[in-house]
């Protein structure tokens, strides 16, 4: 005999939440957004480098989640599934738009700040890293982001970017060599 309660108890809380979303539970959707909205937004922001675009894409991701939660098969973690949707949305946007250059953080440093030198150095270093990252393709930037910011294993990254683990390793290797070379020149 099939025991629905036992099956639900064996699922992770995220999967249970997503199943509730699939059944139309708006409260569960709000909870899922609270749990993962910032994670997805930050991932999108690092890929597209434009806060308004990242916000728009975030809304598209969660609309897709609302409309497609019933298609989640629990073959990956909920976070991995969400980041995969976000990755596809970002890559699609990047194919049709050129990302704008990042703002100069040093211009935002307040006058009269006692730690202005430290902040300028940090802003300069952050700009160097952002510039080096912006030279990478979205595919290479995505693996760097997923590995170093989200601390995901290669298998999860492969699911998100929809390629074999070997390809993820190759992209990572290329991206790290490129970043090392670019940052070493500056």
Count helical runs: 9
Strand content: under 5%
Report the uncertain regions.
1-8, 99-113
Give the N-to-C terminal Cα separation.
Answer: 66 Å
CATH class of the domain at 10-100: Mainly Alpha
The sequence of SSEs as H and E is HHHHHHHHH
Radius of gyration: 19 Å
Structure characterization notes:
The chain has a domain at 10-100: RNA polymerase sigma factor, region 2, helix turn helix motif (Rna Polymerase Sigma Factor, Chain: A). It is an all-alpha fold. The N and C termini lie far apart (66 Å). The chain has helices spanning 4-10, 13-22, 26-48, 51-68, 78-96, 116-134, 138-149, 154-161, 165-185. Mean pLDDT is 81; it is low at 1-8 and 99-113.
């Amino acid at each position: 005999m099939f025991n629905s309660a036992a099956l639900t108890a064996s699922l992770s809380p995220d999967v249970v939440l997503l199943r509730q979303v699939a059944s139309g539970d708006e409260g569960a959707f709000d909870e899922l957004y609270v749990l993962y909205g910032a994670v997805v937004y930050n991932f999108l922001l690092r890929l597209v480098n434009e806060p308004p675009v990242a916000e728009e894409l975030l809304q598209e991701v969660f609309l897709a989640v609302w409309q497609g939660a019933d298609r989640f098969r629990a073959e990956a973690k909920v976070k991995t599934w969400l980041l995969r949707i976000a990755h596809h949305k970002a890559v699609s946007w990047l194919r049709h738009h050129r990302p704008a250059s990042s703002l100069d953080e040093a211009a935002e440093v307040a006058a009269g700040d006692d730690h202005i030198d430290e902040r300028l150095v940090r802003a300069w270093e952050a700009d160097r890293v952002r510039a080096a990252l912006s030279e990478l393709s979205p595919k290479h930037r995505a693996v760097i982001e997923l590995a170093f910011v989200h601390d995901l294993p290669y298998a999860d990254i492969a699911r998100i970017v929809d390629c074999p683990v070997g390809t993820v390793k190759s992209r990572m290797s290329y991206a790290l060599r490129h970043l090392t070379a670019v940052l070493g020149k500056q």
